Amino acid sequence: MNNVIEARGLTKSFGKSRALDGVGFTVGEGRIVGLIGPNGAGKTTALKAILGLTRYEGDLKVLGLDPYSERHKLMQDVCFIADVAVLPRWIKVSQAIDFVAGTHPRFRRDVCEQFLERTQIKRSSRVKELSKGMITQLHLALVMAIDAKLLVLDEPTLGLDILMRKKFYDTLLNEYFDEQRTILVTTHQVEEIEHILTDLLFINNGHIVLDASMDAVQEEYRQVAVRPDQLEAARRLNPIGERAGLGRTHMLFKGVARDALEPLGEVGVPSVADLFVAVMEGGRS
């Protein structure tokens, strides 16, 4: 499998503060990777480095290119959607399509038009006349129509209702993603995307604190709804996280055999959100 992103010793400082502190990770081709962390963890800085929008120290290759010095070439194969992305309010939908078609050599107008046919967006409408959901759909139509190898999403559904968020990710999965394309997404709504993720990157205080495939997570981690009479026995197995709820104590374990956990209570696989909380609160990843 080819690596789309390779980072080694990636560092970015702002004065005496390090937003990224010697970060290292790889992202393979044909993967959907969740880059997840609390506010101020370094997510945005990492994305800016990957997109060639900021200088950095260390080694970083994106599609084999230095993203900062070779950004113009890189952007032919990379697309980006952010919650802060804007289109001029005065521009018509048809003009936005014409603009992207005229500036990006790999834009496929027919794909864009086919997607918009399934929406209520009129070509004659101006951006200022569209709802936030429609603007997101327009962004998605324009970006998905570019035959890019890497799609970077930074909180792409922020402010959308749950139906629009689900439709966004379903469209992304069914109409854009394939084994030759890679998606890197950051979001705080992890519950809504964990079913499409192939890999997790947790970042905190400028460090990668978890780097694992979803398959590895399902193999290594277990969550147990521990019965009250088994609490001490469970704690002797060194859970990496513990929380109370619904009359049970829920504990998260790494590398403990299922056979050893089953006598303690109901055993399951933790959600990405539960794993994230355990790691961020100081658990061992």
Rg calc: 21 Å
Structural class: alpha/beta
List low-pLDDT spans.
Answer: none
Query: Do you know the CATH topology of the largest domain?
Result: Rossmann fold
Distance between the termini: 25 Å
Largest sheet: 6 strands, mixed
What CATH architecture of the largest domain would you give?
3-Layer(aba) Sandwich
Q: List the quaternary state of the chains.
A: single chain
Put simply, the count of helices is 10
The geometry reads as: globular
Neighbour order of strands in the largest sheet:
5-6-7-3-8-9
Describe the overall structure.
By secondary structure, the protein is an alpha/beta fold. The chain folds into two domains: 3-205, Rossmann fold; 216-280. It is built from ten helices and 13 strands. It has helices spanning 43-50, 71-74, 93-103, 109-117, 132-144, 162-176, 214-220, 231-235, 258-261, 272-280, and strands at residues 3-14, 17-28, 32-36, 57-62, 78-82, 150-154, 182-186, 199-204, 207-213, 221-226, 241-245, 248-254, 265-268. The strands form three sheets. Strands 5-6-7-3-8-9 form a six-stranded mixed β-sheet, sandwiched between helices. Strands 11-12-10-13 form a four-stranded antiparallel β-sheet. Strand 11 and strand 12 (248-254) form a beta hairpin. Helix 4 packs antiparallel against helix 5 (132-144) and helix 5 (132-144) packs parallel to helix 6. The longest helix has 15 residues, at 162-176. The radius of gyration is 21 Å and the shape is globular. The relative contact order is 0.14.
